[in-house]
Amino acid sequence: MSHVRLEREGSVGRIVLARPERKNALDREMANALFDACHQFEQDGLVRVVHLTSDGDDFCVGADLQALSVALGAAGEAHREDAEAYGRVLLGIRALMKPVVCSVRGRAIGAGTGLATACDLVLAHEDAEFGYPEVRFGAVPALVMALLRRTVGEKHAADLVLTGRVIVAEEAERIGLVSRVLPAATYEQSVAGVLAGMSRSPSTSLALTKWLLYKLDALSFEDGVAAGVVTDVESRATTEFQDGVRLRTEQERSK
């Protein structure tokens, strides 16, 4: 049985962590399946938005301890291959030219928080929990740190990775680790509403917006503005932009 399940509903592609019996713990097989899922939805012209979610009560409790136990005596190359598999997933989510929305219910710990952090939007159930406890067990949350610093800033990142503490959804939203906290009573409907709203936007404008958002990490302010000019011109050349301007013009005239 695959650790990951793929679904498509209209223009929303769904990647489901499907190991509820292991609380969706991440092993190499799951990491490889997640990377393949990103590639598959990149190629699917009908999908505009990708939704990363999970089966069971927890989103992902981190690395699979059983797999780690088996690998304790393995050569360094085996550990490198595990790390690289996880790294490919983080890069694959960011490289996907479609927005990735992660919905988190229950615990997202260690690698689970890392998966969420890599996504473009994180929608957290009000009872969700997040944390990087690796330091308490002699490990380092190494692969996600480049993302984490960009997401929450140096001091918040240091607080999380050096103390290993687990935080609730409200604090995660306050420091910028999650985009929104959604109330339990309307959680599923709220997630569906966000996905439906995003999926109505033209695919080209979504792709260009995501590309520029992260391209700015490597640019100076001046170069960022210049990249914005190029992207703006490119978006205006699309049929979706031109149709959108005509539609809005007609709506304005009819008021």
Folded structure, characterized:
This protein has helices spanning 28-43, 65-70, 76-95, 111-118, 145-152, 154-163, 169-174, 187-199, 203-215, 221-236, 239-253, and strands at 4-9, 12-17, 49-54, 100-104, 107-109, 121-125, 129-131, 166-168, 180-182. The protein has two domains: 4-199, 2-enoyl-CoA Hydratase, Chain A, domain 1; 203-253. It has eleven helices and nine strands. β1 and β2 form a beta hairpin. The chain is globular. A six-stranded mixed β-sheet has the order 1-2-3-4-6-9, with helices on both faces. Strands 5-7-8 form a three-stranded mixed β-sheet. By secondary structure, it is an alpha/beta fold.
Structural class determined from secondary elements: alpha/beta
What is the mean pLDDT? Answer: 92
Main sheet? 6 strands, mixed
CATH topology of the largest domain: 2-enoyl-CoA Hydratase, Chain A, domain 1
Helical content band: 40-55%
How many distinct folded domains? 2
Shape: globular
The helix-strand sequence is EEHEHHEEHEEHHEHEHHHH
Oligomer: single chain
Between the first and last Cα atoms, what is the distance in angstroms? 56 Å
With strands numbered from the N-terminus, the spatial order across the biggest sheet is 1-2-3-4-6-9
Q: Round the Cα radius of gyration to an integer and report it.
A: 19 Å
CATH superfamily caption of the largest domain? 2-enoyl-CoA Hydratase, Chain A, domain 1
